[in-house]
TrEMBL record:
Residues 30-65 are annotated as: Disordered. It comes from the Bacteria. This is Zinc-dependent metalloprotease. The keyword Endoplasmic reticulum does not apply.
């Protein structure tokens, strides 16, 4: 679930993460078979240095040997979809003739990684492949389902012939079984990088070392085979600063090369012989999807069609309104799961049954422990026929729920959910900081087991949602009226968010005086979840094709017209929707919601010292919870930031009138800036709680507060936001909130008490003086940046005004420190306006990303260091 963030998301995703870092934390119809004469050389494998090796011709066909000379009595044989033979260090496939040219799904997954790599259980790649026999050679090909056409159309043969399946590898056939099944030695298929099946991204490797890579084990199952291999990579050298030469002393030898080994599990899965009937995607309802380009459309162009991904659920009693499915969706709970959490994980999985009952299915979603041999002799957690909730011993506080699907139809075939052990740490920190002020159970540590169980169950329900085909719906948290989120009856019936698939955690709007049952603070299956499940899974028996389902699906989707909480994120929002925040509760009015949230944070921060046990340990837990509190504050401020230059969006189709984009009203944007002025740019003294900061490193609290202040300011004046403000001015005219007006409001927020009064009284505190200088730096950075920028006229005018005000107030200041500060500001503004003396600002550090770790579902705390230019994004 990779996210691309615009500047409007900074506070919600990047700003909010400041406090997590400190010196204590280191940083689709089946394509035709290949035609004779179309064979091409196998794709060249990369060399150890990462560059592709020279292309080589396929291995020549070999003379066939007698079967018993190849598969000798020493071979260990397993029967399954493909017959496997292991002979010393060689692996042979004996492929039944009926399996040749048939589509298979190949999946590569990282099952063990070096310390510090956040990829346990991650899918490296998946692709449809097949084995094709040609002249005593077995070709291993990738299969494309990108282009399709109705077979009855004249263009169908051209579409079929235009797709060439890539030959990924070629193997000489060494023998034939008595049934005519080819026998090939396939070890190198799993000990080299074939196509995009490479684990180098997991460890940031630059080349696979074949001498340290091998097949570890293999297993044959009725519908699949699994091969486990160990891949060892040479890694990119860690950058080290050069040491200055010392006369007469030899330079030290270069550091030895670094390596990393990864366990990779390959599964080859037989696709259903009869693809499931696909259901057309509608972007008003959230589903993951597969896509194809249809050249057989009656429209005057090729048409990209998308099918939702979903499980094949069919009623045992087709005519019954409510029926058990022929085959339920079952997750098996890993034996490594802490015993106390097993009932809660089962509860989290089966919570979805309320939604599937609305779609006409009873007991459709189940969770079971690993069965015994007597209960299921064929059960093996490594068999992709079984979906597992894996409990992974990792210090990463995260979880995720991917799935494998048939690209022809979108049918979900397998969904292994991964729960990292330290997800409990993340839930504890969130629960304490968000609702600790209103739940007495969260006011002493450790949290009770039953409470932690409920928090883990919530995570599981969310991840099961992904595994059922549902993506995130960040719009949902802004679709309930804010005033309802402290209403016990509403919370009991509707919850505080309409879907589990939003990043809307615990209800931080509730105040102690509301006396809300703590059970209502945790999200649950909501009306959107039920609606989306009905839309995607309810059978439409009267329709015979996906196209015939369209009118019914459109009618169901139109329920969103009258019930806003059934709406899904708009694909056109482009980061401009102020209701598309993550980690938000009640962002229908983020000013009200964040104001209530801050009230609770002020209560929580005073409770932290008393919550930590006096057991003789160090202050690490106190520091962690303090940073988590600061992170929550920054997150909530980010929700308010999104209003400035923001829009309310709706995803409307051609039969729905109305505006898709509606700018936030001028008054609402100014109210947001005023709120940020009061809560952020005026030094938040409550975050400098004496009983805590006396236990921290001296520089940390003020530095972290300033980091959030600077990051918010940078986001407020960035080019994307000013461009949106100018677009709103075009749309609304005099009713718009203009960029120059934003700059005036920020002048008041940052310098008001000293520049706008006729007489300067007192002096700004050190945190505020640092903020005032930082704001000038940001203005100069934007004014003198590269490229065209249509906001520079307003920026130049603002700097000129500030320069004059600084000079006038410095002359009248009787305070030595304040006068020196104002003179420094005046000097900096003058240099920023003079191209010959432009101040050289430190370049922001490069954005650091963690490769495919962006697939994680739950944000891992990271953020701004002391240098606000350093951005860590997930």
């Amino acid at each position: 679930m990779t996210n691309t963030f615009s500047s409007r998301h900074l506070a919600g995703h990047v700003l909010a993460l400041l406090f997590a870092l400190s010196p204590a934390y280191g940083l689709a119809a089946t394509a035709s078979p290949s035609k004779p004469g179309q064979d091409t050389p196998a794709k060249a494998a990369p060399t150890a240095g990462g560059a592709p090796a020279p292309a080589t011709a396929p291995e020549p066909a070999s003379e066939l040997k007698p079967y018993d000379k190849v598969i000798t009595t020493e071979a260990k044989t397993q029967n399954g979809l493909i017959r496997l033979h292991t002979l010393k260090n060689r692996l042979y496939f004996e492929i039944p003739k009926e399996l040749l040219d048939q589509p298979l799904l190949m999946v590569a997954t990282a099952t063990a990684v070096p310390e510090g790599a956040d990829h346990v259980g991650r899918t490296i790649n998946e692709n449809v492949v097949r084995f094709t026999l040609r002249h005593n050679r077995l070709l291993f090909q990738s299969v494309s389902h990108a282009y399709v056409s109705d077979p009855s159309r004249p263009i169908a043969p051209a579409v079929q012939g235009s797709q060439r399946d890539t030959i990924l590898a070629s193997f000489p056939v060494e023998a034939l079984s008595k049934e005519g099944a080819p026998v090939v030695e396939v070890s190198r298929l799993f000990t080299s990088e074939v196509g995009d099946f490479t684990a180098r991204q997991v460890v940031r490797g630059v080349g696979l070392d074949g001498s340290r890579s091998y097949v570890e084990q293999s297993k044959a199952f009725a519908g699949s085979v699994r091969v486990d291999a160990v891949h060892t990579y040479n890694l990119m050298a860690a950058p080290t600063p050069p040491l200055p030469p010392i006369p007469g002393v030899l330079a030290p030898p270069p550091a030895p090369g670094r390596s990393g080994s990864v366990n990779v599990a390959y599964s080859l899965v037989k696709l259903p012989e009869q693809p499931m009937r696909a259901r057309l995607m509608d972007d008003r309802v959230g589903f993951f999807s597969v896509s194809q380009v249809d050249f057989g459309s009656d429209e005057h162009e090729s048409k990209r069609q998308r099918f939702i991904t979903r499980w094949r659920l069919e009623k045992k009693e087709p005519e019954a309104a409510l029926s058990e499915p022929i085959k339920p969706v079952v997750w098996y709970i890993d034996r490594a799961t802490p015993t106390a959490l097993v009932p809660f994980i089962k509860k989290g999985v089966e919570a979805w049954n309320v939604a599937f009952q609305a779609a006409g299915f009873k007991n459709a979603i189940q969770a079971r422990p690993f069965p015994s041999k007597e209960e299921d002799p064929e059960f093996d957690p490594e068999d992709v026929r079984y979906s597992i909730i894996r409990w992974v011993p990792s210090p990463i506080p995260n979880a995720y729920g991917p799935h494998l699907s048939d690209p022809r139809s979108g049918e979900i075939l397998n969904a292994n959910i991964v729960m990292y052990h330290n997800i409990m740490q993340l839930q504890r920190n969130w629960y304490v900081t968000q609702v600790g002020a209103v739940d007495p159970r969260a006011q002493s540590l450790p949290l009770p087991d039953d409470l932690m169980g409920e928090l883990v169950a919530y995570v599981v329900t969310h991840e099961v949602g992904h595994s059922l085909g549902f993506p995130h719906n960040m719009k949902s948290s802004s679709l309930y009226p804010v005033e309802k989120l402290r209403d016990a009856q509403w919370l009991k019936e509707m919850g505080h968010v309409a879907t589990l698939m939003d990043y809307s955690r615990f209800n931080y709007l509730v105040q102690p005086e509301d006396k809300i049952d703590p059970a209502l603070l945790i999200p649950k299956i909501g009306p959107y979840d039920i609606f989306a499940t009905q839309w995607g899974y309810t059978p439409i028996p009267e329709a015979k094709t996906p196209e015939e389902e369209r009118p019914t699906l459109n009618r169901w989707a139109r329920q969103q017209d009258d019930k806003p909480w059934l709406r899904f994120s708009s694909p056109k929002a482009e980061g401009a929707d102020y209701g598309e925040n993550t980690e938000a509760v009640g962002d229908a009015d983020a000013v009200v919601a964040s104001g209530l949230g801050v009230k609770n944070l002020k209560r929580t921060i005073k409770m932290l010292p008393g919550m930590v046990k006096k057991d003789g340990r160090d202050d690490r837990l106190l520091e962690e919870l303090y940073r988590a509190t600061g992170t929550q504050w920054a997150t909530e401020m980010g929700h308010v930031l999104a209003i400035v230059g923001g829009y309310s969006t709706r995803n409307l189709h051609s039969d729905q009138p109305g505006a898709i984009f509606t700018p936030a009203p001028r008054e609402r944007q100014q109210r947001a800036v005023k709120f940020l002025s009061e809560q952020v740019f005026t030094t938040p003294q409550w975050l400098l709680e004496p009983s805590i900061i006396e236990r921290l490193r001296p520089s940390e609290p003020a530095r972290n507060v300033r980091g959030v202040q600077v990051a918010l300011l940078r986001a407020l004046i960035d080019a994307g936001r000013s461009a949106r403000l100018q677009a709103q001015e075009v749309q609304l005219g005099e009713k718009a909130y203009r960029f120059d007006e934003l700059l005036l409001d920020l002048r008041q927020a940052i310098y008001g008490e000293h520049l706008l009064a006729q007489a300067t009284k007192g002096r700004a505190d050190p945190v505020r003086r640092a903020l005032q200088l930082s704001y000038l730096e940001l203005l100069a950075e934007r004014l003198n940046g590269p490229g065209l920028d249509n906001g520079r006229a307003a920026l130049r005018a603002e700097l000129k005004d500030l320069r004059g005000l600084f000079a006038a107030r410095a002359a009248g200041s009787g305070d030595r420190v304040q006068r020196a500060h104002l003179e420094a500001l005046q000097d900096y503004a003058a240099k920023a306006l003079d191209p010959r003396q432009v101040p050289v600002a430190a370049a922001p550090a490069a954005t650091v990303r963690s490769g495919i770790a962006e697939q994680n579902c739950w944000p891992v705390d990271s953020g701004f260091d002391a240098d606000p230019g350093l951005v860590l994004s997930r």
